[in-house]
Specification:
With 353 residues, the protein is α/β, with parallel strands linked by helices. The protein folds into 2 domains: 9-114, no CATH class; 126-344, Rossmann fold, CATH 3.40.50. 45% of the residues lie in helices and 13% in strands. The protein has a 9-stranded mixed beta sheet with strand order 2-9-8-7-6-5-1-3-4, with helices on both faces. Helix 14 (271-284) links the parallel strand 5 and strand 6 (290-296). Helix 1 packs antiparallel against helix 2, helix 2 crosses helix 6 (90-103) and helix 13 runs parallel beside helix 14.
């Protein structure tokens, strides 16, 4: 997509088709395929509503708009996805999809304008916990302040430094050296930062696919939230639009933030806005300055994600590792800067695991 421009219907169709090729099918893949097929008719209701959505969110990527459109339809018309999947032929599915979109058009567009994909990965704190613990084991200021940007429901910052939750999930994610030891990150104050309105649990549920797999993940989320009610890291939530550079910089400086995290956030933005957000955060962080960025492969169209770590000791990020599954199970694979980073900031491993 051109910087700051309104995307074309062909870009939306290409994004839907890419999302429809994801190797895992946990409830959304067939919907993306239907959207990709339906956008072959540029005069249809589907194309019309998606272009209305694109005009309302010009700073967002085509992949995020397709995801958010699906979530908004699911929210506006409960039961729409199973009904679509039950149709006998692709032609029947296309007719029904256009009708559902036409009937709920205004509600869908309003939701797309107001919301983001707030899918909440319960295990996505695992790698940041390890990185923060290693990095700040010898670089921590006395008043270390951390912010999770694009925090959504805010589970990640509440999970930090919980040895109980780390132990529950750590064994399911194998690192190059085995299973990392739990290491406390010496954080004095934690913030969760996102645009208004902050999502509630009902909206987060809409972001999960319609499948037994996602039902299991959502149950994992709710059980973890119950633990955090009694044993969570205290978090201050602040409403800031990451695309508002002045507001973001003001937050960073007013609260003296030393370290930050962006998990599955930047892919939602147009490419020029991704760099804008990273540059603003890096400029506004107090020394020693650390920013962890986790991004899905190919904007959610391939399995897994990469983790990059920006530090004050070099201008380019450390390309640290790749995780085989975006829900943070499976394998952590070292990328080209893993060895350099871990030589400077060693990760302790549980040799008995």
């Amino acid at each position: 997509m051109l910087a700051s421009g309104i995307m074309k219907i062909e870009e939306l169709r290409a994004a839907a088709e890419r999302l429809g090729t994801h190797p895992q099918d946990h409830g959304w893949r067939e919907f993306f395929r239907l959207v990709g097929h339906g956008l072959g008719d540029p005069a249809g209701d589907l194309a019309d509503v998606l272009m209305r959505c694109a005009r309302r969110r010009p700073a967002h990527s085509a992949s995020h708009l397709i995801n958010l459109f699906g979530i908004s339809l699911k929210s506006a018309s409960p039961g729409a996805l199973p009904l679509l999947y039950s149709q006998a032929t692709p032609a029947d599915q296309a007719v029904l999809l256009n009708r559902l979109v036409r009937e709920r058009a205004d509600e869908i567009v309003r939701t797309v304008e107001a919301r983001c994909n707030s899918f909440t990965g319960t295990r996505r704190f695992l790698v940041p916990q390890v990185v923060l613990g290693a990095y700040f084991s010898k670089n921590a200021p006395d008043d270390l302040c951390f912010a999770d940007f694009g925090t959504g429901l805010g589970i990640m910052p509440r999970q930090l430094n919980s040895s109980r939750i780390f132990a529950a999930f750590n064994a399911d994610l194998r690192w190059p050296g085995g299973s990392p030891d739990f290491q406390v990150a010496p954080i004095s104050r934690t913030f969760g930062v996102d645009r208004s309105p902050l999502p509630d649990l009902q909206w987060v549920r809409e972001c999960y696919g319609t499948s037994a797999y996602y039902d299991k993940l959502f149950n994992e989320l709710t059980s973890t939230l119950e633990i955090l009610e009694a044993d969570g890291n205290p978090v201050d939530f602040v409403e800031v639009d990451l695309l508002d550079t002045d507001s973001l910089m003001r937050f960073l400086r007013d609260h003296s933030i030393h370290a930050g995290n962006l998990s599955y956030v930047l892919y939602e933005m147009a490419e020029d806005r991704r760099r804008q957000i990273v540059d603003t955060i890096r400029e506004g962080l107090r020394p020693p300055g650390l920013l962890i960025v986790t991004e899905p492969h190919a904007e959610l169209s391939r399995q897994g994600c990469d983790v990059l770590v920006y530090c004050a000791d070099r201008p380019a990020p450390y390309r640290l590792c790749s995780v085989s599954d975006g829900h943070f199970t499976g394998e952590v694979t070292a990328l080209e800067d893993y060895e350099e980073f871990t030589e400077k900031y060693p990760i302790p491993y549980d040799l008995a695991a």
